[in-house]
Each structure stands twice: as C-alpha cells, then as structure tokens.
Amino acid sequence: MPSPLETWYAEIPPITRIYITASCLTSIAVQLGFVHPLHLWLNFDRIIHEYQWWRLITNFLYFGPLSIDFLFHMFFLARYSRMMEEGFFRNKPADYAWLLLFSATSLIIYSTILPYAYMPFLGSPLAFTMVYIWARRNPYVRLNFLGLLSFNAPHLPWVLFCFSFLLNNQLPMGDLLGIVVGHVYYFFEDVWPREPASGGRRWLKTPRIM
Q1: 59 contacts 122 by C-beta, under 8 angstroms
Q2: Taking Cα atoms as reference points, which of 136, 119, 130, 113 lies closest to residue 73?
Q3: Within 10 A of 136 (CB to CB), how many other CB atoms are there?
C-alpha cells in the first residue's frame, strides 16, 4: 500500500512533478558533494566562452541547501504550479511548458538588463511568477495569511513581497522579478486580447512548434 507521500507525489501533474523532482535531486546532489553550486549558477562568461549551456537550465533548479527555506520554496512551487497545471492548463501541457519557457527566458533577460536585478539562481523568481499569475486569475478567492490577514487572491504576491521585505530588511528582488514577468504574461494573455485595439490577437500564444 503506497504511503501518503507516494500518493501525493503520484497525483502531481507531470510538468510540475518533473520540475520538483529535478529541483530536489539538484539540491541533494549539492548536499552530497556530487556537484558545486558554482557549476550551476547563471554565469554568462562560462555560457558564452566555455559553452556551458546547462547553466541556462540549472540556475532554475537549485533552491539552496536542504533546509526549512528549501522546503518552503518546494511547497510554494508544488502548490501553485500544480494548481496552474491542473486548473487553467488542464490537458494543455504544451501551453504550460510554453508559459514556463517564456517566464524563464524573460527572467534571464530582465535579470541581465535591469539595474541591480541580476541573480545567479532564478528558481525562486520563476515560482513567484506562477504565484502571481494564479493570483490574478483567481480574483474572488479569499486567502488567509498566518491567521492574521484575510484578503483576495490578487493581493497575495504583494503580501508575500512585503512579508519578505520585513523579514529580511532588504528589497526582495527575486519576488519583484517574478511579479514583473508574471504581469507581462497576464497582461498580454488575459487583458490585451480583450481590448478592441488588439483585434483579439494573443501575442503570447503558444507557438505551433510546442
């Protein structure tokens, strides 16, 4: 008889399951000394001059050493990515894969060109992007934060942003990047096509190649 953990894992939709599994295996590999974080981070010099293309992927897989903070990130990733994949992207794996690809590419670009926005690991901002999009697409869902604050779902990213700022006493740039990328996707996929000037065109429609 499978354990509750095995049942929970088996019920996770495929793309979310692959991402969570890869992230956990990456942190375990680092913890056991099989690989060093310096071989995973987003280093453009190594990517361009030494052709270490894997860094474009591995920087999204490492969420830090095994710890409470790591489990917190895995919880948010599993929860909101799963709800996205099971809800808005049910039976649409290509569309969800395209969302992740667009978000990951945008995060790399923004973290490179925006002042003070560079981050060596972008897994947390990518997870925050999923939180933002889910929140904007569920405007009437009521949430409770730490049993102290009740609010509608669209406020969730900003509540987490402020909580992180108060907790760490510094601007949570990763959260901000996730909000920016999430809003870009939400605007061009959910808002702009409804505007008369758009002609109903979806600029971020999943490419046929996907």
Answers
A1: yes
A2: 130
A3: 19
Residues 6+ apart with CB under 8 A from 180: 110
Asked if 153 contacts 145 with a C-beta cutoff of 8 angstroms, the reply is: no
The residues near 140 (Cβ < 8 Å, ≥ 6 apart) are: 152, 153
Averaged over successive runs of 10 residues, the pLDDT of the chain (210 residues) comes to 76 92 94 93 92 95 88 87 91 93 95 87 94 93 82 91 85 91 94 80 80
List Cβ neighbours of 60 (8 Å cut-off, separation of 6 or more).
104, 121, 122, 123, 126
DSSP code for 95: H
Q: Would you give the DSSP letter of residue 205?
A: P
